[in-house]
């Protein structure tokens, strides 16, 4: 919608735009306005009170990167019912075209019905869309590595087969946090490798960067790294 785009342009930070463009190289620079996340979230709360907010959500695909970010920020503000929010995410996620927009969406309302969210996550992980799969993995990471953790979730992520960098990185990120929070359950995935070499090694690398893993465990994890060209590619 023209008014919303104009207001996003008024929030532009040129220096931030130039910096952020480098972080999402798959998005054309002309599609990035340059709105800092705190400013965008504040703006989303204002838009959520307007009658045109619902119309904005229907106007897919969006052109600007920030329009997608606004869409992602609006969803949990407008949909407090978990089932309805999940349905709206199913509409929007196929239009997500970068990791930053994907990772920005983290609805706290998910906590109201984690079993329902988990069933949808299993569907997302089978998607052919890169950022639908990534969102599923990141949702498991954010909401299912503490009290709601089930060992089977590790296998769900391990079973994801993809050469897409942003899926592999999400899987590595997930397993690195799993090694922090669910060490005993996650460790067998590294002692008898289940992941492809690059993801395996990246997960270990990220895990040993954590201050929450002690020195003894870090030394052991280093010994589990896979050596060879396949593990070092990319």
Would you kindly provide a written description of the structure presented here, covering whatever features stand out?
With about 230 residues, the protein is an all-alpha fold. About 65% of the residues lie in helices and about 0% in strands. It has helices at about 1-10, 15-20, 35-45, 55-60, 65-80, 80-90, 100-105, 115-125, 130-145, 150-160, 165-180, 185, 190, 195-210, 215-225, 230. Helix 3 crosses helix 5 (about 65-80), helix 5 runs antiparallel to helix 6 (about 80-90) and helix 14 runs antiparallel to helix 15 (about 215-225). The model has no long low-confidence stretch (mean pLDDT about 95).
Task: Give the gist of this structure.
With 234 residues, the protein is mainly α.
Query: For the terminal residues, how far apart are their CA atoms?
Result: 40 Å
Number-wise, the strands total: 0
- Helical fraction equals 55-70%
How confident is the prediction overall: mean pLDDT?
95
Low-pLDDT parts are none
Global morphology: globular
Task: Give the percentage of residues in beta strands.
Answer: under 5%
Biggest sheet details:
none
Number of helices: 16
Measured on Cα atoms, how large is the radius of gyration?
19 Å
Query: What string, H for helix and E for strand, traces the elements in order?
Result: HHHHHHHHHHHHHHHH
Q: Structural class, from secondary structure content?
A: mainly alpha
């Amino acid at each position: 919608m023209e008014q919303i785009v104009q207001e996003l342009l008024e929030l532009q930070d040129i220096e931030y735009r130039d910096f952020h463009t480098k972080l999402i190289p798959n998005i054309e620079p002309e599609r990035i306005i340059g709105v800092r996340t705190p400013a965008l979230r504040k703006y989303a709360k204002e838009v959520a009170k307007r009658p045109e907010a619902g119309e904005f959500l229907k106007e897919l695909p969006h052109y600007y990167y920030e329009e997608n970010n606004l869409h992602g920020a609006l969803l949990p503000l407008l949909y407090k019912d978990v089932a309805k929010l999940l349905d709206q995410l199913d509409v929007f996620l196929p239009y997500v075209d970068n990791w930053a927009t994907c990772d920005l969406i983290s609805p706290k309302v998910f906590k109201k019905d984690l079993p329902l969210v988990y069933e949808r996550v299993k569907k997302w992980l089978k998607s052919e869309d890169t950022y639908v799969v990534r969102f599923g993995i990141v949702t498991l990471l954010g909401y299912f590595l503490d009290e709601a953790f089930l060992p089977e979730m590790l296998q769900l992520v391990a079973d994801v087969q993809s050469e897409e960098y942003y899926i592999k990185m999400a899987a590595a990120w997930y397993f690195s946090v799993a090694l922090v929070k669910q060490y005993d359950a996650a460790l067998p995935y590294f002692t008898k490798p289940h992941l492809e070499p690059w993801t395996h090694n990246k997960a270990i690398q990220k895990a040993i960067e954590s201050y929450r893993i002690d020195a003894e465990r870090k030394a052991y994890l280093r010994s589990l790294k896979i050596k060879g060209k396949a593990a070092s590619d990319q």
